[in-house]
Amino acid sequence: MDLPRAFGLLLHPTSLPGPEPVGTLGEAAHRFLHLLHEAGGRYWQVLPLGPTGYGDSPYQGLSAFAGNPYLIDLEALGERNFPPSGPRVDYGLLFRWKWPALRRAFARWGVSEEAWGFFAREEDWLWDYALFMALKDRLQKPWYEWPTSLKRREEKALEEARKALEEEVLFHAWTQWVFFAQWGALKREAERLGLFLIGDMPLYVALDSAEVWAAQDDFHLDEEGRPTVVAGVPPDYFSETGQRWGNPIYRWDRMEAEGFSWWLRRFRKTLELFHLVRLDHFRGLAAYWEIPASCPTAVEGRWVKAPGEALLARVQEVFGQVPVLAEDLGVITEDVVALRERFALPGMKVLQFAFGDGMENPFLPHTYPEHGRVVVYTGTHDNDTTLGWYRTATPHERAFLERYLAQWGITFREEKGVPWALIALAMKSRARLAIFPVQDVLALGSEARMNHPGRAEGNWTFRLPHLALEEPLNRLKALAKAEGRGSG
Question: Which residues carry out catalysis?
Answer without folding.
Answer: 280, 327, 382
